[in-house]
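Job type: complex structure
Entries:
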Amino acid sequence: MKSILKVFFWVSVYLVLTLAPLLVLKTGQVPPGSGFWWDFSMALAFAGMAMMGVQFVLTARFQRASAPFGIDIIYYFHRFLAVLAVALIFAHFLIIRIDNVDALGVLNPLQAPWFMTAGRIALGLFALLIITSLWRKPLRIHYDGWRLMHILLAGTAFLLALVHIEGVGYYIEAPAKRWLWTGYTVFWLLLIVYLRLIKPWQMRRRPYKVVGLTQERGNSWTLALEPDGHAGMTFKPGQFAWLTLRASPWQVREHPFSISSSAERHDRIEFTIKELGDFTRTIKNTEIGEVAYLDGPFGVFSVDRYPNAPGFVFIAGGVGTAPIVSMLRTLADRNDQRPLWFICGNNNWQDVIFSEELESLKGRLNLNLVHVLKEPPADWQGESGYITSEMLQKILPANAEKYEYFMCGPKPMTDAAQLGLKARQVPLKQIHFELFDMV
Amino acid sequence: MREQWARRIAFLTGLLILLLAIIFSISQNPEGSSGTGTNLKQPPSTGDVEAVNLDPQRVEAGRQVYRQQACARCHSIAGEGNENSPLDGVGSRREADELQDWIIGADSLQGVLPDRAFNQKQAHKGIPADDLDALVIYMQSLHTGLPGTGVEQRPSTGNVEVADLDSQRVDAGRQIYHQQACERCHSIDGEGNESNPLDGVGGRREADELQDWITGADNLQGMIPERAFTLKQVNKELPADDLDTLVIYMQSLHPELHSASTQQSPSTGNVEAVDLDPQRVDVGRQIYHQQACERCHSIDGEGNENNPLDGVGGRREADELQDWITGADNLQGMIPERAFTLKQVNKELPADDLDTLVIYMQSLQPQDSGDKGAGGGGLK
């Protein structure tokens, strides 16, 4: 119940922040009407800008505000809203363009008023922002470069749009509105200062040291870190953190990874990382003793959020095993004897990460381990092929609808698994997964 | 599950935004006032006396400059552009040099124009002289028809009974009323912006008061909303004769002649005062003090002399008085916001007390020559 209240509270905060400009439009001295479409267009633009402003807050990774939802969903929401906000801002432009083209004046920036030019550039940058984010991969934009570009583009576009609002000056003359926009601007400035200066500085004061690098099966590496001169972080098993290696925290070159070690061990934190992209391919070059920085923990993908569950079912594919192993190790350290199922999908036996440790965990936990191999060896007795809905019907326990489900893996796999769970009447709210790879 | 909620909340946000934006635009552009724009939709007639002398090429060049400078961001011509400040007919309202002053925001206009407008116009000082000239010529071409041609004949409500008002001047005044675009903020017979109806104003105010209200005289500062006050300053530029004529038109708007739009005429005589029960007047005075009305008002120089109530009983009907005491909705925007808010308190008065307070107000009849004397006397 308490968490529902928290959800309600933060959603309300979000709605107030977004709608405030529209709510105060009618306060104070309002200029007389300028025609329905004109006023409608202005209102849309104010709303679009407020939404844009909230975008900065959403991705600021405030732990308290994101905890009830999971930071992954906040990023998902961020992406959704961005499209909506930019659509509103474009509608603002298009309505004036169609209804009142003369009001736009000349395009030539040498002749046009500066604030109109500012508005035009902002419009272009917002469009660029959306395009580079929705299609980063097809456009072959490097993740680190994209992040830096994203921050700069968003900041510049937003600032120029504010300049445009200030220069045009409609509806912001009344003190309430002036205060609102000044307040927003100051708030956003402080947010940028906090995010880009203060927070990295705090991270820098809590460095970690690389104490181990182990090659795992399936082209993966386990990186072990120890806190250097502080107590480390307390996390829930299954959570993740942003990792910075070979860069200062100010350089925004961090990458999110699942923690794979037990939450009962604070002195040592491990990440299991598969070689997939530009950054992950360099993990193997990490040297013992190197400095690392962490921002976290984040995420709601954890058994600790469901302390009263009668048991858990884990479904993972490939490196998706990492957060599951963290949960299994933690439950073992706590000597938790609730029934557990782990359906573990891989291409072939050699690629099964932690296969030996999973076997030994069976001795410490009430664990039913089911391996599913796409390319099984000749003498394989277990399940083979892809994890399918039909396969789940066979594996799942009789009272499947009572358990909590954690899924982590490629989308076709989780989609198929979801179908299987639906067939067994497992309520949607008992199925949990981390959304990743959104950009 | 969580994505569904995220999508729902995003969708809800979008809906709320659209809804609020539509509500805002509709409330900004009620049926009555949007008529203003459409009335002006007819193309600016160029065929009259002064306009004949304008070189069509220069007019065209001026139109280009108008477009280049994006004047339509704040102005409209024939309903195109921001209908806040229509320029239709500006050529017959202002001389060439005045037009230029208004375009570039000459120093003489500081305080006359809203600050923002004034500041924005400063940028136009950079327009090349030749372009500015062309722009002025274009403005001159925006000529209203000659008196009697531009506006359709409306059912004349004014001239029957007010025998001493010259019906020709009333008509001329009506022309000026439209020329000055008074209907942007006012309505007559439901035509124009109905937040400030003028129906019956001729029965409520004396000629000199009317003139003060038209031009935004200094004594009205603080009494009416700042924006209204600023806008009214424009009328100070009207030629004396035109102003006179406009006042006559206002006088013609006599409540007795407007059976439809206004209720009973606020009779200015003190006949009614005779009927007032002196006991209730006394109780009303107590309520007046109990509600601390003297915080904002004065009677006989006692209290806040910003807003003297002397003679108010001769100026307003009982129901009007009640509206003013309680800050009825129709006064929103007409009186300063703070005053409006403070008055809301009186809505909590028991009906009987409110009645009694109204009776006390009715007892405040003008002493001899109307309320002006009483108000003026209080100030000295």
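Summary: Chain B touches chain A through 50 residues (CB under 8 Å). The CA atoms of residues 120 and 314 of chain B lie 45 Å apart.
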